[in-house]
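Subject: two folds for Thursday's group meeting

Dear M.,

Sorry for the delay on this. The cluster queue was jammed most of the week, so I only got both jobs back this morning. I'm pasting them in the order they finished. Each block is the input sequence followed by the predicted structure tokens. Could you check whether the formatting survives your parser before we put anything on slides? The first protein is the one we discussed after the seminar.
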Amino acid sequence: MRNRNHLFPEIPAPSRALLVGALLTLASACASPELALPSFAAGEGEVPAGYEDVDALLRSAVLEGRAAGLSALVLHEGSVDYLQVHGELELGSGRALRTDSICRVYSMTKALTSVAAMMLWEEGRLGLDDSVGSYLPEWAEVNVGRYGLSGFSVVPAERAITIRELLRHTSGIPYHTWLPAPYPKLYREEFGEGPMVFGPEQAISLAEFSERLATLPVAHQPGFMWTYGAGTDVLGRVIEVVSDQPFDEFLSERLLAPLGMVDTGFWVPEEKWGRFSAAHVVNEEGRVSGVDGDGWEPYRQSPSNPSGGGGLVSTLQDYAIFLQMLLDGGEWKGRRYLSKSTVELMTDPSSAQGGPHPFFNYFGLGFEIISAKNAEKGWGLEGAYGWSGVARTHFLVDPEHEVVLLLYQQTHPFEVGLRNEVFAEMHRAMGLAVEE
């Protein structure tokens, strides 16, 4: 097991800003591992001993039509234990999926946006319990939708939404299509017929998106419960205001470029288009039936309103670097992005007090945190953390066992059945299985 001793003190708020420069200088004294995944196509990779059942499950899922293509990675104690791809980049094209294929990670974007916000928190430029309205005036007075015996009504919020609530999805800002009437109609009237489920897609600025979203009622009083929604998109606008630069530029300059995430962004340049996976759809039997033809155009150019909640594309290589940085306590290749204590704060169940999501796990400051109850299912052990994207991309980080897991599909609609099967097999391969 490699040495993971960290040379940096934990930084208390609010004096972080004075220490940031010193931290970055000291970081060069601490070496972090390299991570360079080999590039190969489906059918070319070798299966390491012990991972035969994992590989067989992935192959059978493609053969049975549960996915057009699958990419999977296991990092254990800083080393690649398993890396494999199966299937096609685009169903029926004959083009094999590759380890360096570019995929839509959708809501896995939220983890990067959350880390970006916490970097500003460490610098003393953002407060977790500050009101969102103190940064974005349009959120100073929020209305709340309420259902009663006389029907739907709108009442003023009892208090302001906080930055912490944006991070842990307890703000009440919803994904409107998952709510009953009249939310879908209200959102269509404001934003038109665009999907609007995973953030702004109209040709408006992120500022205008936030301003218009704030005119609509949230789903419940701030902090009342966990409601998954567009709060992380609003957080992207907060980052934009606090940093005084466009959100996508901040993310690139402070995270993507320094980490070496060269294939991660809000659009796909023409020279990389041949590596971009198609988005696929399934039929009533749950089998992949074709390509989503509308899944290409949004990625042909830089968006006017980059979605911090679901806009990024990435590769196994890039996202694995980001996750390994978190596993190593906020450091990568001699550069510190977050203090170890901040990573622990983001992924500690205590950060989610009052906000567990409906599947019985906690949700901290940007991540789902596996509870003992869910650990019994075997796909993630207690204390691990992760999240997913709507096109069935999934990640898991287990600090205790020094594990990073990634599984990419490009298929709608969302489900976690295959993720649970694959991650459980990966745990068995590492000798970390939970007896059910």
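Second protein, same layout:
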Amino acid sequence: MLYYCPLEAYKERYTMQWSAPQTGWLERNWIKANIPYTRIDEVKTLEEPKPITTGCVLDAVGRSQHCFQQINQLLQLAEEKKITNDDCIYFDDFWHPGIEALPYAFSLLGIKPKMYAFLHAQSVDEFDFTHPMRSWMRYFEKGIGKVLDGIFVCGPCLKDLVVFGGIAPSEKVYVTGHPFCSEEVRERMPTQKVKQREPHIIFSSRWDSEKNPHFFLDVAHAVIKQRPRAKFIVCTSAKTIRSNDPANIQHLKNSTLKYPGNIILKENLTKEQYYAELWKAKIQMNTADQDFVAITLLESSVAGCYPIYPYFRSFPETLRQDSKYMYERLDLNQATKKVIEILDRDDLWSEEQIQQRSWIHTRFDTAWTRMINVMEGKSIDDPYAY
């Protein structure tokens, strides 16, 4: 039996789709493949999840409550002898408070189920917002690295960080690609075909400092001066846009006032509304220092957007080192030139062209099979081979 400990579902984060019961990107595929699993979830007290109020990515308080409830349920199942040596426990996030309590408790109960987790970034990454907390986080990360039987990561770049950072040895870290389901994403997309894409550039990342929002606005200012019809649209599913630096918000507000109609903030979007923005836009742009694979890249690829990303860290491996999709990190002239070059074209969004770019996301549709194969002791293919 596979015991699944999902992330809590937040509307303003991808977890609502990734971890939703039965319809989530993992579960819907497990159900289709008749894989037996038991979902270990928190005790729900509200029909709708609370918004993120404490923290950047997930709610720090709610996250801990969610995780400890899952740990408690696992321990109860173990006491009832429902978890055995033949079972696997999978955690959607490597940073799972309480996981360190399991090995000792399981050993006293005479069982040793295998345990796996997906590692997204953590303090091992110097560009991650948790890096300043490494003086105490690193001890937890190294401990969990010893506890787990396997760690899943998005790509080679992150595996190198995990291994060279001393979190876990290479043989424990598996490059599976990020779980994704283009079928589920496509179901939420508009069905009406777009005759001609609008000169819109979508920014989908969090408005936090590691995503370089100031640089995105610098590019927007430079492009608008040369292409006045261009619209730079900042999207968020949160009720109001948030940032780990208030100066980022002020800079955005100043830009929307300076270029009304050209720099646009769209807040509190449903997924369907956000996908509708992608559906008619020409470009989805990223300026981040820290973003492994980027689910926003996969979603926009399904929508047919042309990606423009920095040539930095994990992006070159995800985009197969193809320079036509990338610019040198923080190079304003090159990024501006790249955006204008793509805006001026109308031939990159035919069904044929969009299909030719589908490799960006399709290999991650099978990430779930690699994860299952690892847990079953089988070999896996390389999602980054080409």
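Two things I noticed about the second structure. The domain at 2-181+365-375 is CATH 3.40.50.2000 (Rossmann fold). The radius of gyration is 21 Å.

Cheers,
T.
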